[in-house]
Write a structure and sequence with these properties.
By secondary structure, this protein is mainly β. It is built from 1 helix and 10 strands; from the N terminus they run βββββαβββββ. The radius of gyration is 17 Å and the shape is elongated. The protein starts with about 20 loop residues before the first strand and ends with a strand.
Length: about 180
């Protein structure tokens, strides 16, 4: 039997986001960032980057007051150790000099009806380069003191300053995020 607390929250209703007002802390152990790219522009490569930390806040009207999340570059993993070392190295992400990727959310906006999609607008920082990235918020589930957000985005690695091996690795990465937030006491 399910309660009304574990159903997806309609964040697009007038009171949707307002019901989540307050401060939230990202739970790295329960959150994931996965990606799909292309090798030789044809073969899909999937992987993940571990979530390290994050926090978010919404005011009483449901407007985003802050959102900051980081992932650890040293944990970049596609299941191919040789490729992973190369991507973590200086030609790509340079984990030694830039150990985290950071996303700072700026606002959440509702799409125009009848397409009820939410958009999280923000800035992704990769190797000290700030790039605007919008996430499509696919689902928000609230269960008491926990909120799960599922969102997707597309990132052009060349725009982010990660341009090595252009002939072998495609420029676009599809990102899938599952962010689990717990209410900050």
């Amino acid at each position: 039997m399910s309660s009304s607390n574990d159903a997806p929250l309609n964040v697009f209703a007038p009171t949707g986001l307002a019901a989540l007002s307050g401060d939230w802390t990202l739970d790295p152990a329960e959150s994931t960032v996965e990606f799909t790219g292309r090798h030789f522009l044809f073969f899909p490569v999937t992987g993940s980057v571990p979530v390290r930390s994050g926090r978010a806040g919404l005011d009483a009207a449901g407007s985003l007051t802050h959102l900051d999340a980081t992932v650890g570059v040293a944990g970049f993993d596609t299941g191919n150790p040789q490729r992973d070392r190369k991507v973590r190295g200086p030609e790509f992400l340079d984990a030694g000099r830039f150990p985290v990727l950071r996303y700072a959310g700026e606002r959440v906006a509702q799409g125009a009806p009848p397409v009820l999609t939410g958009v999280l607008t923000g800035v992704l920082t990769v190797k000290e380069r700030e790039v605007p990235v919008d996430f499509t918020v696919d689902e928000v589930t609230a269960d008491g003191e926990q909120v799960v957000v599922r969102a997707t985005a597309e990132v052009d690695r060349h725009v982010c300053g990660v341009g090595a091996m252009r002939a072998m690795v495609g420029p676009r990465l599809a990102l899938r995020v599952r962010a689990v937030f717990v209410r900050t006491p």
